Amino acid sequence: MVLDRYRKAADWFLVPVASRMLHVNPNVVSWIAFLAAVGAGISFFLGGAGFLGLALVLILVNSYLDALDGKIAKMAGKASVRGDFLDHVLDRYADVFMLGGIAFNAMYCRLEIGTLALLGVLLTSYMGTQAQAVGQGRAYGGVLGRADRLVLLFLGGLIQLIVAPSGGVTFGVGALSFGPLEWVLVLFAVLGNLTAVQRGVSTWRGFSAKSP
Question: Hey, how many other C-beta atoms are within 10 angstroms of the C-beta on 6?
Fold first, then answer.
């Protein structure tokens, strides 16, 4: 997960805001982030320059608030297992809405590509939580984490907005020819499933030879 290396660097634009919001319930911030993701998914589904631009703005809102809720919780001493559970559940629904909005818009993506991308994203998360369920702690490793996905999704949407906001433009050769947003989902399908496999293998190797 490339961007996880720079998690500390994000404090410079998170801490000042979080320090002014210590009285706010971080769960409320998580819900607002989720609603932004729902709005982004709907905007992707509706398509066109206006809605595509709105989707990009809402991705930024979701990304920032998704990082801010945890920072508020830690700084205010409000971190809890319940809050962590809510955050992860809402993140998964957020992923489904945002990617689903693209997958079901034929202007931007073929449904089969979108389905494979969703599988990759959801299986990545499943492998992470399954590692935790068997006592090895939550697994965050692999080549494609959520922060990476959000950055790629924003960049793909931005390119789509610039070159073909209503679709119809593809890049590639033959069967490997996709629009900008579709290329992003192809990456999610390939790298997401690869990340899920990496986490699964890491968890498997984490068991001792004597484990039942």
Answer: 9
